[in-house]
Design a protein that fits this description.
Blueprint (H helix, E strand, L loop, with lengths): L1 H21 L5 H24 L24 H9 L1 E2 L8 E2 L5 E6 L8 E8 L6 E8 L5 E6 L13 E9 L10 E9 L4 H8 L6 H14 L4 H13 L10 E4 L1 E2 L3
Parallel strand pairs: 2-8, 6-9
Antiparallel strand pairs: 1-3, 3-6, 4-5, 4-7, 5-10, 7-8
Helix pairs in contact: 1-2, 5-6
Length: 259
């Protein structure tokens, strides 16, 4: 490419030289100056292109793992949710899954029973103009670790290497979901399942976060006395600075209002 640009520049310089000769004008100094200028401009352009920094990575903004809001600090349920509600994911992206229909986990603290309704939405990133999935739900009476799983319907399957943004929103009343009291948001990107990633998931490694967390949670509910699973669960929570909820009960999946 550099040689091509230099050739074009030299051709232009030679043409200028021939024109000067035809007009009977002195050309030696002019020709040397034109050639030098063409060479300098071409090399400067090439060096500038080589030194240009790479484009920034196509990574979503940090995840909103806590609500940071609420209607009124004087209302106990709202205050409890504002302080305790959280999404069980890291703040920084990317956060990965190998599943076409992943599970998302959230902690809903005890004492917030009056806030019963919510909505979970999944949109295509970066424009977030296409809604991939949405469900409106009711929380069960028991509080603790709740889950939202994408239904195993082909339309809702996550595409590999596509990033999605999700929103988990809670409100006092089913009619108020359109202007929720509490909102958490985050990202998920599906990647291919490889033998290395399968090992990471089984070991509870945070690299494939959604799969490792949901798999560990599922196994722990089946074998709650397994000390290895308990330690694995605690390591994952410590990774996101949520070790204080290590003993929280599993409250199960949210209850869809659309069934």
């Amino acid at each position: 490419m550099i040689l091509q640009k230099l050739s074009i520049a030299l051709t232009g310089a030679i043409a200028s030289s021939l024109l000067l000769s035809f007009l009977g004008l002195p050309q030696h100094d002019t020709q040397r100056a034109a050639l030098k200028k063409a060479h300098t401009q071409t090399m400067s352009s090439a060096v500038a292109n080589e030194r240009r920094p790479p484009a920034p990575p196509n990574t979503p903004p940090p995840n909103g793992t806590r609500p940071g809001g609420g209607l009124s600090p004087d209302e106990t349920p709202h205050s409890i949710l504002n302080d305790g509600l959280r999404a069980l994911i890291p703040v920084e992206n990317p956060v990965l899954t190998t599943a076409a229909y992943p599970t998302f986990l959230f902690y809903v603290p005890e004492g917030s029973e009056s806030v019963q309704y919510g909505e979970f939405s999944l949109l295509l990133w970066p424009n977030e103009e296409i809604r991939h999935y949405r469900t409106r739900f009711r929380l069960s009476e028991s509080r603790g670790i709740v889950s939202v799983t994408i239904p195993e319907i082909p339309t809702y399957a996550l595409a590999e290497n596509q990033t999605y943004r999700w929103y988990f929103q809670l409100a006092d009343d089913a009619e108020e979901i359109i202007s929720p009291d509490f909102t958490l948001h985050g990202s998920v990107q599906r990647v291919a399942l490889t033998p290395e990633r399968a090992q990471q998931i089984q070991a509870g490694s945070p690299e494939i976060w959604y799969d490792a967390l949901s798999t560990t949670a599922e196994q722990l509910q089946t074998s709650p006395q397994d000390s290895q699973l308990q330690a694995q669960w605690q390591r994952l929570l410590t990774f996101i600075d949520a070790e204080e909820i290590g003993g929280a009960p599993f409250a199960g999946a949210v209850l869809s209002l659309e069934d």
